[in-house]
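Lab intake sheet, docking and co-folding queue.

SAMPLE TYPE: protein with bound small molecule
LIGAND NAME: nicotinamide-adenine-dinucleotide
LIGAND FORMAT: SMILES
REQUESTED OUTPUT: full 3D complex as structure tokens
PRIORITY: normal
SUBMITTED BY: R.K., bench team

The fields below were copied directly from the construct record.
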Amino acid sequence: MKIGHKKKNGDVMTAKILINGYGSIGKRVADAVACQKDMEVIGVTKTKPDFEAKMALEKGYKLYAAVPERAHLFEEAGLEISGTIDDVIQDADLVVDGAPKKIGKQNLENLYKKNNVKAIIQGGEKANDAEDSFNSLWSYDRCYGKDAIRLVSCNTTGLCRSLYAIDSITDVLKARVVLIRRAVDPNDSKKGPVNAIIPSTDVPSHHGPDVESVIKKFKGKIISSAVIVPTTLMHMHSLMVETTGATKDDIVDAIAKTPRIFTVKASEGLDSTAALIEMSRDMGRLRYDLNEIPVWEESINVIDNEIFMMQAVHQESDVIPENVDCIRAMLQMEEDNIKSIEMTNKAMGLLK
Amino acid sequence: MKIGHKKKNGDVMTAKILINGYGSIGKRVADAVACQKDMEVIGVTKTKPDFEAKMALEKGYKLYAAVPERAHLFEEAGLEISGTIDDVIQDADLVVDGAPKKIGKQNLENLYKKNNVKAIIQGGEKANDAEDSFNSLWSYDRCYGKDAIRLVSCNTTGLCRSLYAIDSITDVLKARVVLIRRAVDPNDSKKGPVNAIIPSTDVPSHHGPDVESVIKKFKGKIISSAVIVPTTLMHMHSLMVETTGATKDDIVDAIAKTPRIFTVKASEGLDSTAALIEMSRDMGRLRYDLNEIPVWEESINVIDNEIFMMQAVHQESDVIPENVDCIRAMLQMEEDNIKSIEMTNKAMGLLK
Amino acid sequence: MKIGHKKKNGDVMTAKILINGYGSIGKRVADAVACQKDMEVIGVTKTKPDFEAKMALEKGYKLYAAVPERAHLFEEAGLEISGTIDDVIQDADLVVDGAPKKIGKQNLENLYKKNNVKAIIQGGEKANDAEDSFNSLWSYDRCYGKDAIRLVSCNTTGLCRSLYAIDSITDVLKARVVLIRRAVDPNDSKKGPVNAIIPSTDVPSHHGPDVESVIKKFKGKIISSAVIVPTTLMHMHSLMVETTGATKDDIVDAIAKTPRIFTVKASEGLDSTAALIEMSRDMGRLRYDLNEIPVWEESINVIDNEIFMMQAVHQESDVIPENVDCIRAMLQMEEDNIKSIEMTNKAMGLLK
Amino acid sequence: MKIGHKKKNGDVMTAKILINGYGSIGKRVADAVACQKDMEVIGVTKTKPDFEAKMALEKGYKLYAAVPERAHLFEEAGLEISGTIDDVIQDADLVVDGAPKKIGKQNLENLYKKNNVKAIIQGGEKANDAEDSFNSLWSYDRCYGKDAIRLVSCNTTGLCRSLYAIDSITDVLKARVVLIRRAVDPNDSKKGPVNAIIPSTDVPSHHGPDVESVIKKFKGKIISSAVIVPTTLMHMHSLMVETTGATKDDIVDAIAKTPRIFTVKASEGLDSTAALIEMSRDMGRLRYDLNEIPVWEESINVIDNEIFMMQAVHQESDVIPENVDCIRAMLQMEEDNIKSIEMTNKAMGLLK
Ligand SMILES: NC(=O)c1ccc[n+]([C@@H]2O[C@H](COP(=O)([O-])OP(=O)(O)OC[C@H]3O[C@@H](n4cnc5c(N)ncnc54)[C@H](O)[C@@H]3O)[C@@H](O)[C@H]2O)c1
Ligand SMILES: NC(=O)c1ccc[n+]([C@@H]2O[C@H](COP(=O)([O-])OP(=O)(O)OC[C@H]3O[C@@H](n4cnc5c(N)ncnc54)[C@H](O)[C@@H]3O)[C@@H](O)[C@H]2O)c1
Ligand SMILES: NC(=O)c1ccc[n+]([C@@H]2O[C@H](COP(=O)([O-])OP(=O)(O)OC[C@H]3O[C@@H](n4cnc5c(N)ncnc54)[C@H](O)[C@@H]3O)[C@@H](O)[C@H]2O)c1
Ligand SMILES: NC(=O)c1ccc[n+]([C@@H]2O[C@H](COP(=O)([O-])OP(=O)(O)OC[C@H]3O[C@@H](n4cnc5c(N)ncnc54)[C@H](O)[C@@H]3O)[C@@H](O)[C@H]2O)c1
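RESULT FIELD (auto-filled):
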């Protein structure tokens, strides 16, 4: 396994990152890495020459065929590729995998490990597919210097942030969460449902244990259930967290002090996921990404030491800054997670 | 106030029911009353001469103008009305109000009380707008002989049934419920959202206290939150109920023994609200009404004495048989709630 | 090939119909056949033991495994089957195929022809997969006594009816139709889109030629384009038909005289596909099927001899009565299409 | 009426633009004006202190109360306003009205005319509410120096562009257009439909005449019908244009030469409105605005001299660059429409 990032004769040597799987997550990670000072994107891969591949080239990324046997498709479509993944993987300090669920694990076993290159796989994979599960607030140190890490899902990332805020002011005894999940990402026109609610009939759902894979001390304390509903914009979480005590003001303060999570007010017109996305569009965010977790201030309430609150999760983007921090941890580029978070946020233009 | 239903010289005297507001709820109550042996529909009212008014006439109901000043609209449209509500209200033993939210209360004050006629108002009204809140299982006796009763909402009715099953085998310590609400009824093409999730930012939401208005002993024990999602078919509830203990088998049994609630299996293809409605269509139900509450058997689980389960609620129809029972209670037609439930179910063709 | 239906010694011998593929179309054809006097359902097939299979048994149909190797699944699920399709196909006078797109053609080649049994395949198949394309109004005579017939799609059936009405009063010079298609049937929770419009980028779309496969004299005269939109209830057609001349009154009259198509008024509240389905629910139709084609009266207009009108198509049900008529034609049970239409309509309770 | 823009002693005097009604259209026009060299935004108005008002302040716009009596609401909410519209209107060379349908007309009569200030009202108003109807390609000259102009709707603007391309190579004999309209803008969570198609039962719809208000020579030649479908992203148009002759290549070329319209390929994955918006997000467009009209190349076809094609319209943004050009025309800042188009496009970063 290659050694991570090193500084040489005063110059800063930037970490060389390859993005394998330039889809919803992959393309965002590429753009987030590209705007950091200490990293660079040495290439992105695509399985087919569609408009996303074209766009990658227009943005100036070197394009590689993710599946060598399909390289000819790019030529036939008149898209210039710099080779296949086999031609570039050895140059990478770390690969960020952005392939679909289950393919990430296969890539890790068949490609990244074989080529002795560090790799991040995404939240579609299982906790034990990698050495550990990453969240910038909770497991940065645990993942420091590691070779194969799973960046947890959008839902888990969102819960890790709100639980961090809560944990900073009180003790969590038991957390119950109901996840109302968006059906598909907004670019998808194939999957449904069009007009139905689909329950995850396994209750508790896998989301609780997934949070616990990041926050070991919450083992057995997070219980979740989930439904899928016909919308594309964001997930929604209803949290009910039994604690040893806290006030609404405490919680609002704690959220204000926690990175990448903030409160919003329905009374200001931010009364649905549609309004939140409109805000993000107005803010001029690239692809309207709302990387931070918005919590409705009106929804925060404490009864009998139990905290209630509702938050939304922009599934396409909340994990993106975490990927950048994870790179820094795995390549031992920065020891302090808060410093990495600040660097990432500043480069990406996040609010906090 | 008129005295309720009485039998005379051997003949059964049927209760004379007027339906004021023949919309989603009103038209279903009309059909449910019409098929009972001990009641009859003496008339239904409409505010305008639309296709629902036509359909009422075709079904053989006598049609009255709900708003006397609008009577001329019916004539102009060529629809034969038998008069206005003022012409018929004195003949009614009881009026079932089916007017929209807030209008029910007004009708009660300005119309039913003034005409000294018993009345049921629906779940859009508030608990203290009437003498008590009705559910066939929980408050039949309390409403017996009363003059003005509120028939609680579809969501509250659904929760009352599952909590009845649970209460029959264990003690409820605390119940947490997250309601994922359908946006509009399927006949509505005006309201949204089209592609958003809308949180009720008051947490806990009003649904918990509403259940407690029916089940007084649960005072302070039911905590709920709610979101609205872009679907028309059914609501969904995720229940988390702390108890003194129960097994999954106990719960399945208890549900089997409780009227108007049953278990369904996702493994049989009943894996979404869309599939449940398809089942109801296949069963030949009028308007595909699924008056019973379906609970996903796979979702029932007990951890640390806390019961988890997911249920769906067909918002248009679960309260309909309750309206029939409520009539019997208010008009003192049957003392035993279980007997009324059985009569109603049999006449309507319910499963249980 | 077996000879069709014959009457023997005074008794009426009913045609023995097997339904292969008891899905959206298959189950409806079964129920429509079952209520005819001159036919009976000798069995229905399912590929898996889901709730639809259970429902078929509850309705009293004999259930067979469509795929012999999967017969054990039914036993394991505790569902009683009467055997596999191989055990029953020889007893059938005719098989109505209800299998998904492309499977119907395979079944015809591999199963029905091999067993020498007459068969109807549905609109998912191509025109030249069968001997001819059926519509009760246009091609009954052509299909009389034939062995393998394609019952055209819901959209084609809808257009055949409105074009029949128009053709009865004027000459069609050119018809342009834009089809706004429902995304999925209401029982489907898997396919999308959730929030997108998908164009058929082949313009003209295949729908025009498909109509021409039924109405040969319109060869080259029907031009269509199509989009898919996120709704489940009905398709919508915008028709623009150049003719040699007609008035709006002529058209309204012609529609009134044509079977299985009628006018509705938006002014009566029937102003969307949602309202039309509500009407059908109110009418007490099984599964709310609206087998007739509704045309908005307000939308009918004639400018420069070009007829404009908008109609909706209940995709799940408009082809069902046609399947019944097609059986009568293929088995030579009734020579006169109008008589068959009347028999079918009466048995099914259609308006006209 | 004030005289329009003039240059003084070498310096360029920028046109002072006030945006009255900072909603979907208003905020986009503000940003588009702000990035032009020859204009500036002197203020924007809001009726209430919501998040959009906050965002306007954060962007550096001076905020004014649109309704003087509501000024106190802003103070109460802690939002700094620079006064009410009455304080700023006299400083404006031109007001761009962005108020909802019908309010624009009222504002023109009661506010702009009274204050003797030039004004653009938007497409929600009627053709004869203003002096003329604007499109950069068709009526720039007609609107030159005028005082009150209506900027036509998103649909009309889209059609004006494709018809311009077609008109540049052949003669339009008759155009038929079916509009499949998005239900609401993506920020809206109040209006529906959730699961229905709503026809405009007036056929032809008002869209044809609206195009003719811009392109006088097409008087009587444009016939349209329209439906509303449950999606938020874009409208879709199916065009059928009878001409004196053209080839597909001609049309593709003509589109390539026409400003603000381009072809896209479904074969590259751009096969739905969802994919088009994804492309726009990837392009880094502010609020993902796709100001240009995309036409599906695969859908372009010519049969018997009739052109078929399908195009999408990003309703929130296609009219924005037209507003900028309209300002230049009305204030006589640039005589040549093509030069204005180029200036606008360059400043806004449009593709063409
Ligand atoms: N989209 C989300 O909401 C979201 C949020 C958090 C985490 N995730 C996780 O991120 C991962 C990627 O999801 P996504 O939504 O970006 O998927 P996506 O479908 O948008 O993108 C996947 C990309 O991988 C490419 N690909 C397919 N096979 C490949 C292979 N063998 N090698 C390399 N690339 C291949 C595809 O062409 C596509 O470009 C999944 O694990 C998912 O669970 C997704
Ligand atoms: N639809 C549901 O899901 C549902 C479920 C349970 C309870 N409820 C409750 O039932 C009540 C009725 O709701 P709905 O969904 O049937 O509404 P609806 O809009 O379908 O029907 C209301 C009917 O009342 C008529 N109406 C209006 N003003 C009237 C007046 N002044 N007098 C008499 N009639 C009048 C309307 O014309 C309409 O026919 C509400 O309280 C609602 O909260 C509705
Ligand atoms: N649903 C509509 O809107 C509609 C309208 C008109 C025509 N059609 C056509 O009707 C046909 C059936 O469509 P559907 O919507 O009823 O489909 P469906 O998916 O609802 O039902 C198909 C049924 O066939 C069964 N099946 C699968 N493989 C089979 C096999 N090898 N042999 C026998 N059965 C098999 C499936 O289990 C299922 O029960 C298609 O050709 C379709 O294009 C559908
Ligand atoms: N959104 C579109 O798709 C679209 C496209 C093209 C044209 N248009 C037209 O643009 C106009 C504006 O539409 P929109 O979609 O931007 O609406 P919108 O509802 O998004 O915004 C309207 C804004 O006007 C404000 N407003 C209300 N009353 C006002 C008053 N009296 N004075 C000043 N401001 C007032 C509202 O607060 C809101 O901020 C309409 O004529 C509409 O038809 C809209």
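REVIEWER NOTE: Residues 98 and 178 of chain C are 27 Å apart (CA to CA).
SIGN-OFF: pending second check by T.M.
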